[in-house]
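User: I've been trying to design a sequence by hand for this structure and keep getting stuck. Would you show me what you'd pick, starting by listing the structure so we're on the same page?

Assistant: Good idea, let's start from the same input. This is the structure you sent:
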């Protein structure tokens, strides 16, 4: 599931393990880090929204990478199940699509300003 989420987030511009099967094998052995998204993969992921999981405002990039970390967990007990995964994405959907809420940096850059709809 993590590979699918990774490719969707990058609009298929990058794969979680590239085209290198050895990277995937090394990851499974714990020798390679969890694949992470970057701002270059999708600039929209820099949009800060409320995270119910942490009860704070976080960029979607950080929220996606947190989800990927749980999807790619080698220990099956740490992985998100389908309902938990759906709940994480439903939370993002509620703030972005249904309510039109997001956050942007204030003009001073020291805090986040709440934006609703077309504000």
């Amino acid at each position: 599931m993590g590979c699918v989420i990774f490719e969707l987030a990058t609009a298929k511009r990058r794969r979680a393990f590239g085209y290198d099967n050895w990277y995937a094998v090394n990851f499974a052995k714990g020798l390679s880090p969890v694949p992470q998204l970057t701002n270059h993969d999708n600039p929209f992921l820099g949009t800060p929204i409320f995270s119910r999981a942490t009860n704070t405002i976080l960029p979607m990039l950080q929220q996606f990478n947190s989800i990927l970390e749980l999807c790619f967990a080698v220990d099956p007990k740490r992985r998100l199940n389908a309902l938990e995964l759906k709940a994480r994405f439903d939370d993002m959907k509620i703030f972005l699509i249904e309510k039109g809420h997001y956050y942007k940096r204030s003009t001073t850059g020291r805090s986040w300003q709440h934006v609703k709809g077309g504000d």
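That's my pick for every position. To get oriented when you compare it with your attempt: DSSP finds four helices and four strands in the chain. The beta strands are 48-51, 56-59, 101-105, 112-116.
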